[in-house]
Design goal:
The chain is an alpha/beta fold. Helices cover 39% and strands 14% of the residues. The protein is globular and about 65 Å long.
């Protein structure tokens, strides 16, 4: 079953560490079956409960998966192997459009915001025991959420979208629970779910967001949580339309026990209106990050939700980092109140490049998708070959394997560093590399 690799150890920690060493060395391959617990216990001369504890720890860390009588096996992509490692290093002279970063020319300068935060701190020092959410930050954040029709609820602040989503899932779910996620979807989220010991259930999507049929199937499978990207979906650029939102709300309303998480990381870089689902279920969370519009290194995200969810997130946060620096919150207050980002101009800049690339590819017979945000998704028949051919043509793109589970192959192109003059040459290179269009796109 294990070939030449031998699991060793007397305690649960030693046994689990032995399995992880085998995975790290490549001697235990993804998908490989592990010995039944009683068999391994007899081989090691330990109590079966010891092996059960080791397997449970590995499952909770997202290293293995268990399927009842079918036994345990190494996950197809263990959590110790993040999808971010599936990347193409751009050698000198190659244009890198793979990283998904915003255009630094569109990010505001932070010196004034940080100085304003420091001046405020001099008058009102941040100390233990204070409210973890700065009052002015809360006021401005809530006003913006109200303007977008997000359901009322208390506020918390997290260190980015992924931190907020992790805290919400951990507040409600237990290892083994299933979570519906978009496919293709955000690679970091696809890593996070199994790392929490949870099970991924993929939802197909199109330009208007998750397909109702895909959500319905996931709900019928008994998922305990659903994560949906409102706008600028990564990697496809999908944006939930009003009609799609109504259909999704109807399905979720029949399952009020399901935890709904919405990610609005595209706030302030897209001009499409928000059609939130928040409040449809009993427990929900709406996350809005500052990363794309104001700078990834700010590490500030707004979280609102039902009272129980936000209380649980805040309570657990106090036992860890305590709070997100109020200095950073005050810097964001300055950025918001000063109008540091010209939202229509930023959205127009990304839109012109994104739409221009999609149109240029269409002229060359290549289907591409990108309704909002800074990314374009191109379905391809041979993902590895397309990435390699583009690298040879001078362009480093992101392989679709970073973003998909059951979805067909594709590549992601980030337009942040692309100029109008680049569109033609880039489209020519993609058309040469992509090959015949696959039968399915990503829906």
């Amino acid at each position: 079953m294990l070939g030449e690799y031998r699991i060793v150890g007397r305690g649960a920690a030693e046994i689990s560490a032995s399995v992880e060493r085998g995975i790290a060395s490549g001697e235990l391959a993804p998908g490989q079956s592990l010995p039944p617990m009683r068999e391994l216990a007899a081989d090691l001369g330990v109590n079966p409960n010891t092996v059960a504890a080791a397997y449970r720890a590995l499952r909770d860390r997202g290293v293995i998966e268990t399927a009842g009588r079918r036994g345990s096996r190494v996950r197809p992509r263990p959590a110790s192997t993040p999808r971010g490692s599936l990347r193409v290093d751009a050698p000198p002279g190659v244009r890198d459009i793979s990283e998904g970063n915003p255009d630094t020319a569109l990010l505001p300068a932070l010196d004034g915001a940080l100085a304003a935060a420091a001046r405020h701190h001099a008058r009102h020092p941040g100390l233990y025991g204070q409210d973890p959410v700065d009052p002015e930050f809360a006021r401005l954040a809530r006003a913006a959420l109200d303007a977008d029709g997000v359901a009322p609820g208390p506020l918390a602040v997290a260190s980015g979208s992924l931190d907020a989503i992790e805290r919400v899932l951990a507040a409600h779910l237990r290892p083994g629970d299933a979570v519906a996620v978009e496919d293709p979807g955000w690679g970091s989220l696809l890593d996070l779910v199994p790392a929490l010991g949870l099970r991924l259930v993929p939802m197909a999507l199109d330009d208007e967001g998750p397909l109702p049929g895909a959500l319905d199937r996931a709900l019928r499978e008994g998922v305990r949580a659903v994560v949906i990207t409102c706008r600028a979906q990564n990697p496809t650029g999908a944006s939930v339309s009003p009609g799609r939102a109504a259909a999704l709300r109807g399905l979720l309303a029949d399952r009020p026990e399901v935890v709904l998480v919405e990610d609005d990381h595209g706030h302030a870089i897209v001009d499409l209106p928000l059609t939130p689902l928040a409040g449809t279920t009993d427990h929900w969370a709406f996350v809005r990050s500052t990363a794309k519009a104001y700078g990834p290194d700010l590490r500030v995200a707004v979280l609102t939700g039902d009272t129980l969810t936000v209380d649980r997130v805040g309570g657990r946060q106090q036992l860890g980092p305590g709070w997100v620096s109020r200095l950073l919150q005050r810097a964001v207050v300055h950025l918001w109140s000063s109008g540091a980002v010209d939202v229509p101009a930023v959205a127009r800049s990304y839109g012109e490049r994104r739409d221009g690339l999609v149109a240029a590819l269409a002229e060359r017979g290549v289907a591409a998708y990108g309704r909002s945000g800074m990314n374009v998704w191109v379905p391809v028949a041979d993902e590895t070959g397309a990435v390699a051919r583009l690298l040879g043509a001078g362009w480093a793109v992101a392989p679709g394997a970073r973003f998909r589970t059951a979805a067909p192959p594709g590549i992601r192109l980030t337009v942040s560093g692309v100029t109008a003059d680049d569109l033609g040459p880039l489209a020519d290179a993609v058309a040469m590399a992509a090959g015949p269009a696959p039968a399915r796109a990503y829906g």
